[in-house]
Design brief:
74% of the residues lie in helices and 0% in strands. It is mostly helical. α3 runs antiparallel to α11, α5 packs antiparallel against α12 and α5 crosses α13.
Length: 440
């Protein structure tokens, strides 16, 4: 292809992006691939990684846990790559997941996809607020043992700080330097958890790695852990993240995904495996509660976990913010005008208030990971991605390729149902053990 043809193609794509930007109050086609890669990595290495030793490895054990994490990463990369290649289906950029589903299936599927995605992101954000509250509670316990500051109080404080951050960051692309801070915070708590776990593992007696629970309990916990495997790697909002990347959007998104699933997942593996090695089946679902070490070091790690969680939550709340800003035409012009700022305070503040209330009422973090993976991450990332690819590329696929995609659709649909049942059972059990507004 000649240089002139390439330049014309790039000009046409730029014009298309400029037109499409009028469909949203947020910024699109602005970020280099590596910034998008850091957005994805921020989600993967959020403070949720401090829970995978206890929520995944404890219930799967060494062999199934290691193979599961590696296999889930490979399958997730494949499914996300399929979805990324559909971003320009029909010759137009589909900047929202529901827009892509609506184009392929029609209006009803547009609404269903939006509902699934809303549930997915709401549950993730609720979990982030619980995580931030746990970090604050862990700091308090390091210095006081009077039990005056309860977890629900810490969750309310966390929700308030998340709201303040949401007021000041108008859209996803505006995170920029905050992604650097997020990476720094992630390294702090991951390095601390890794180092202290290593020291504890060396200095303590042999651990018990047997899978705890009754026979039926083990079955349900294993299914829940599989749902957490899927939750660990996937956002449920890939088209919205891809909307921010500069053209060529498919190639750049594939670069970002490769970054996420190669370099980006290494810290997750390190802290998950080391945490389980050090504490075995007694590993906490918040690893910093298991480690032993200098108080100031554990304090720094929990502070880093708290602030990284605030930043990560904003990523997963951005599709809701974009929807509201676009619907009520409140994202255009000066982002910090009274008109726009007051809207963000009222609407985003209201949304996060609901998140915070749910988090305080049911602060069962492992349950949220399992239920979110079952109800929405499985359908959005695996079932829909494979079926949409079948619909769009059906004339270009061989019989064997079609059979492969159908196998994924059916298999992950069944796994989604089983995981949802297991997660709901876990919530019922925990609700009996822990009362509402529990101080865990």
């Amino acid at each position: 292809m000649s240089t002139t043809a390439i330049e014309i193609g790039e000009e046409e794509e730029a014009k298309l992006d400029e037109i499409l930007s009028e469909d949203t109050a947020h910024q699109i086609s602005h970020d280099p691939w590596y910034q998008v890669g850091f957005v994805l990595t921020t989600g993967v290495n959020s403070a949720y990684v401090l829970g995978y030793s206890g929520s995944i490895m404890v219930h799967l054990g060494w062999i199934a846990g290691v193979i599961g994490l590696l296999l889930a990463a490979a399958i997730s990369l494949y499914a996300n790559a399929l979805l990324a290649r559909l971003h320009e289906a029909g010759g137009k950029r589909r900047i929202r997941y529901r827009d892509l589903a609506g184009y392929i299936y029609g209006r009803k599927m547009y609404a269903l996809t939006w509902a699934l995605q809303y549930v997915n992101l709401f549950m993730i954000n609720t979990g982030y607020i619980i995580l931030a509250g746990q970090a604050l509670k862990a700091i308090y316990v390091l210095y006081r043992d009077d039990d005056m500051l309860k977890l629900p109080y810490c969750i309310v404080i966390s929700g308030f700080v998340c709201a303040l951050f949401a007021f000041g960051i108008p859209h996803l692309s505006a995170l920029r330097i905050w992604l650097g801070f997020s990476t720094m915070f992630s390294f702090v708590y991951i390095l601390v958890a890794f180092a202290l776990s290593t020291r504890d593992g060396i200095n303590t007696a042999p651990r018990d790695y047997s899978i705890p629970g009754s026979y039926s309990g083990k079955i349900f916990n294993i299914i829940g852990a599989v749902a957490s495997l899927v939750f660990a790697y996937n956002t449920g909002m890939l088209p919205e993240i891809q909307a921010t990347v500069k053209p060529p959007v498919i190639n750049n998104m594939e670069k970002a995904l490769l970054f996420q699933f190669t370099i980006g997942v290494l810290p997750l593996y390190a802290v998950t495996f080391m945490g389980y090695w050090a504490y075995g089946s007694s590993t906490s679902t918040y690893l910093l509660n298991s480690v032993n070490g200098p108080v100031w070091v554990k304090t720094a790690a929990n502070i880093a976990a708290f602030f990284q969680t605030v930043i990560a939550l904003h990523i997963f709340a951005s599709p809701m913010y974009e929807y509201l800003d676009t619907k009520y035409e409140r994202g255009r012009g000066n982002a910090f005008s009274f008109h726009n700022l007051s809207f963000r305070v009222c609407v985003r503040g209201g949304y996060l208030t609901v998140n915070t209330f749910v988090a305080a009422v049911l602060p069962f973090l492992g349950d949220f990971m399992s239920l979110t993976g079952a109800l929405s991450t499985f359908p959005l990332t695996f079932v829909l991605a494979n079926h949409m690819y079948l619909k769009v590329k059906k004339n270009k696929l061989s019989g064997l390729e079609k059979a492969w995609h159908w196998l994924n659709v059916v298999g992950f649909s069944c796994l989604s149902v089983a995981a949802a049942v297991a997660a709901l059972r876990l919530i019922v059990v925990d609700s009996k053990t822990y009362h509402l507004f529990a101080d865990l």
